[in-house]
Structures are given as structure tokens and as C-alpha cells.
Amino acid sequence: MATPAETAEKATRRTGTSGRSLRYRLLANAAVISLALAGCQTASVDSQFGSTIEEDQGSEQNLASLTAVIRANPSDPSAYNVRGSAFGRAGRYQEAIRDFDRAIQLNPRFFEAYANRALIYRFTGDLGRSAEDYNRAIQINPSYEAAYIGRGELYRRAGRTQEAFNDFQKAIQLDTTDPRAYHRRGLVYQTQGQHDFAIDDFSTAISLQPSAPEPYNGRGISYIATNQLDNAFDDVNYALRLDDSVAESWANQGLIYERRGERDKARKSFQRALQLDAKYEPARSGLARVGGA
């Protein structure tokens, strides 16, 4: 059997639905598809997947260095944009917004700063301002793929599926190499039951960033939906090897064990998911189905 990475390399990229017949497959068990889609919808794809901000950028040492740069160049909008990104990585959102505000004040056409501020507004729940900033970034630079990806995710989380699809599609048409565009378009395909298209998109995301667990989980769910349990098991286990602290991965493993009739193993996987996230409903409902406490 091919490894997940080998499967990714063989995948065909699809950038639209024109001229293609859409293939729909349904899970036999409605509870299973409910669990599967819930798992995909709750995955965090910004903090762990596809971020343009380096992991250590939010450290106090790095922030101090960036502050020194700003003191030496107080009129440089790029310096504020970089430090704002670092504050965002550190979860210091109000300080991030102030830096992006300053960057935009110094350069009102700084489309990257608008998109970065939009992401922070989304994290703080200010979705109206987030949408305004993404729109402004796209207005300034209609070829800025990151803004389409960010706005598309805003639409996807709001249930505006077609608008989300259009934005991810636009980023892909711009020849983006950002795996988030493919991963998120795959999620849209998945919610529509178009699992073959979803598998292709998740595979492309994996080929662009093979170290991220999220697209392996996404592809695993679509493999489950199309009754390719061996492929699904490979993907979910690989996601766990990459990061075993993700509740979704354990819940997905439990789902596969459940489909195989291995209830004891399923119970242990669902329990592990709940240890990591006690409020993770897909694991809770899965545990109830297999007779867990």
C-alpha cells in the first residue's frame, strides 16, 4: 500500500468543476458522516497550518529585537507590519492591531498589513472589520492570493460556502503555493459530498506542506466517506505521528476503529481525544456510540 506521501505525489490537481461530472458518495451511517464533518470543521488551520509567521517570532527576545528596529526606523511601515505579525503569533492581539494601524497610517496602500490586521480581527471575533480589511487588501492588489484565502476562510466559517469556494478558487487560479487554499477548498468539497475532488485537494496541500497534520485528517475523512478505510487509517496515523496532541486525529482514529468493528480500540481513541479536549463533540458522540463512560 502506498504511503500518504506517495499518494500525495500521485494526486492530480483540480482547479475547477467546469466540464466535469461530480461524483457523489454517501456514508451508510448518518452518524458517521456527522462526526466526520464536525471534525473537519473544528480543526485549527491558522495556528498550526500554513502560517506565514515563524513559530518563534512571538518570543520576547524577537519582539525586543523588532522594537529596536522600529526605534531606529520609526517611519518604516514594514517594521510595524513585521512586529504586528509577531504580536499576533504571541496572542497579543491589541498590540498587533496597533502596529498594523500604524503601518497603514504610514502607507495607506499597504495591502499586506490590511490582510494581517484582518486575520487578527477574525481571531478577536470582529468579523465585520475583518471582512472590510480583506476587501481593502484585494481592492489595492487584486492579485494578492493571501487575502482571498483569508476572506474565503471567513466566508467558510460563516457558512457562505459558494463565496468561500470562489475565493479559494481565485487564489488557486493565481497559482498560489499556499497549502491553505487547497486544504480549505477541500473542506468545501467535503461538506458537499464531493469526496474525490476533496481528496485531490488535500493531497495537493500535503505535497505543498507534508509536515502539517490537518490535510491528512481531512483526506482521511474523505477516505472514510468513500469506504477506503485502509487509506484513511494510514492518513490518520500519519497525522498522529506528526502531532499526537490534536484531538481530531484521535477522534478520527476512533471513527475508523468503530467502522472496523474494533470497539475497544475505538473507545480508547475517543477517550484520548477527550483527554486532549473535553469539549470535542465528535469524540464525545463517538464514545457514546461505542459504549464508553
Automatic annotation (TrEMBL):
Q: Which domain of life is it from?
A: Bacteria
Stretch forming the signal peptide: none
Q: Per UniProt, which keywords does this protein have? A: Repeat, TPR repeat
Q: Which organism is it from?
A: Oricola cellulosilytica
Descriptive protein name: Tetratricopeptide repeat protein
**Keyword Membrane tagged:** no
**TPR repeat boundaries?**
77-110, 111-144, 145-178, 179-212, 247-280
Report the Pfam families cross-referenced here. TPR_11 (PF13414), TPR_16 (PF13432), TPR_2 (PF07719)
The UniProt entry, under PANTHER family, shows: TETRATRICOPEPTIDE REPEAT PROTEIN 6, UDP-N-ACETYLGLUCOSAMINE--PEPTIDE N-ACETYLGLUCOSAMINYLTRANSFERASE SPINDLY-RELATED
Which InterPro entries does its entry note? Answer: TPR-like_helical_dom_sf, TPR_2, TPR_rpt, Ycf3
